[in-house]
Write a structure and sequence with these properties.
It contains two helices and five strands, in the order ββββααβ. By secondary structure, it is of the alpha+beta class.
Length: 65
């Protein structure tokens, strides 16, 4: 699933942990996604967006193919 950044108009990269799907624009830093109804996940990410990069680094979130 390709998502385009509304600001940059480039393709955002998608990541998932099986329940949540996040699409990140590495040019401008915007992100959005699907939480699977998990409000606590949304709140954590909105409070600390850098958490996404840590989750990618430790492979909690993996690329959507």
């Amino acid at each position: 699933m390709d998502e385009k950044c509304k600001k940059c108009k480039i393709t955002k990269y998608g990541y998932t942990d099986g329940q949540h799907s996040i699409f990140i624009c590495f040019k401008c830093g915007r992100y959005d996604g699907i939480s699977g109804g998990d409000i606590s996940f949304i709140n954590k990410i909105n409070e600390e967006p850098m958490m996404l990069l840590l989750m990618i680094k430790d492979k909690t979130l993996t690329p959507i193919s």
